[in-house]
Amino acid sequence: MSLAALWDVEAVMGGHRVLNGADLVLEPGEVVGLVGRNGAGKTSALRALLGLLPVTQGVAQLQGEDVRRLSSRQRAERAGYLPQERRIAWNMPAVEVVALSTPFLPGPESRRRAVGALRDVNADHLADRGVGDMSGGERARVLIARAVSAPGPALFLDEPIAGLDPDAQHFVLAHLRSQAESGRGVMMSLHDLTLAALYSDRVAVMRDGLVISDGEPLAALAPDILREAFGIEAGWMEGPAGPLLATRHRHQGA
Amino acid sequence: MIRLNLGLAACLLVAVVLAVAFGETALPGRDYARALVDPGSDVGVVLWQIRAPRAVCAFVVGAALGLSGALLQGLLRNPLADPGVLGVSATAALGAALAIVLGAAAVPGLVEAAALGGAALAGVLLTLVATRLSSPEGLILFGVALSSLAGAVTALVFNLSPSPIATAEVMSWLLGSVQNRSWIDVAWVTPALVVAWGLAGVTGRGLRLLTLGEEVAASSGVALGPLRAMVVLAAAVATGAAVAVAGVIGFVGLAAPHLVRSLVRGDPGRLLAPSALAGGLMLVIADLLARLIPTDQELKLGVLTALVGAPLFALIAWRAAREWRS
Which domain holds residue B317? Predict the structure, then answer.
């Protein structure tokens, strides 16, 4: 059974149609990269899957059940989320922030898991530091650890590598891959198409609230799709560490 | 955590004992012994019927305001939220001012009920707005507008009031004080605090999750609608009762959470009890100061807290603005 799915979903936000018949599926053990222009509907798709964005048509499912019929607690048991908003309101220690991923476990158990999750992202030395006193990169690691240590088998991450240096980007994506290898399903929105191709089992390309291409990365990101979805002229070449995208703007040059 | 609360409670006990022991009238040592043995004696009456209920009243009112502040700051994820800023105090004051001018002071409990009604109205309005606005900043702006409006209508009540006596009464009440409060007042405000505490008790986990924003809270198993309603209701009940008994006392709700926040390492769920205790402690000490500072007219508690609180507010705003920029 798939971990999460959108079937022909439409959704409206602020009088604007943000999803326009989107179809998406997340299976256990896979990493799905969600790409598209700003405003193409990536965040909306993730929020609809989590039940945070009400759908006006079609159905959003978590483990085969309509999210509308699940309580917020049941949703939390099926899927974790890293939203784009990264503000942490209070200067809490990192370990307490990560422990927020399991609010229904007893405190000591929850903190023990949190320390483990911090260790997995090489941040156990930050456990007792206040998140308000950290650098952006350190805080990002703490938030990734929080999202990944959520109990649900599905993980939705909205631009997990935004604002990170290249080393940290690879680290985070490799960490998410390892989660998929242990049987979870990971769906993440990304702007870096090369990294999306490198780390995803499948890429879904969105445009105007619709998934226009979905499949094996290089096929889903074929030049004609990239032209349609992003307005760029691009082609894949063989790089030293895998496929590499060469791009130029369509109005540029010949 | 438990140590912190015990420590605050111990400080509080000392403060209350001091507040009962010291006052305008200095007493020789043997009088204290007499008051303990014979509560009906002159000194006993001063200690047990005048000073003690006043100190306890200051504590309960301060605790109610400290609790409200911690609840609202947690809900709105903003260190500048408090019942004063959000208009709950002003609306409660408007209710009481209306009741006094309309002559309701003759009926015991009516002014208090009007204050509570005003706070409840503010609570309902804030909840309605909170469920329709996704941004906490929007709710704060609404609260500021509500506060101004309630203040303007209160001024209108003054303006149109036919009786200067009623006007003076409203004025003195608006300044905020626990002077001449009796055990009856204590009995009035305490159950409200208990109810508010009961409601607040179940919001800790939700407030903690809100640290990471509403999307994370909602996707971690928090039902946001009921949480918002519970927090605003608890804050309205506590603030309404506090205003009903002591008038408008500003800035305690703002300062109390701020003073203890670093001691619970920012955790908004664990902040509630220490913030209530700190609010109570602050007000007991402030009231003792108000009594001991030798002025012709006794300083009103609300005036004193505003004099100390307003600069503190500016300081918090300054720090918060710098944090958000970085």
Answer: 2-325
